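Morning F.,

Quick status update on the modeling queue. The single chain you submitted on Monday has been processed. Sequence for confirmation:
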Amino acid sequence: MKKFIFILVTLFVVVSCKKETAKKEIVESNKCAVSKKFDMYKSSEMAILMEQMYVENSKLKERILKGATLGTFPSYYTKIFSAKFTDESDNDTFFNDNANLYIAAQKLLYSSSKNYKENFNAGVTACITCHEGKCGGPIPKIKKLYIQ
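Structure tokens below.
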């Protein structure tokens, strides 16, 4: 009986040690993965600005639909002419022409007391036109801004 208990305890210790070794190997392999340099994607100034303008336009659409006052033209929109792009080659005549159309539509919207829907939709169209020529990715999202 003593031999049986001794063998059982020994077997238990050996199995436990093997599991502990396997755990250490997993931890060691995880340490290796964690210690590697991890490069995070960083949005460009232009991408951040466009995201802010999208949020502002979503709020603006709701104000127009409710018949509320629009407030004043957000001056930070003009950073569209100076914000840094992810790819600086995108900052060309085509972009600047469309940016001017967008800013003009926004200024007209905020300065007029009528035709809110048409002026707002003109700004959305300027965004879509530019994105059709540059990066089409956000077009479905932008189209949701249209006021029907």
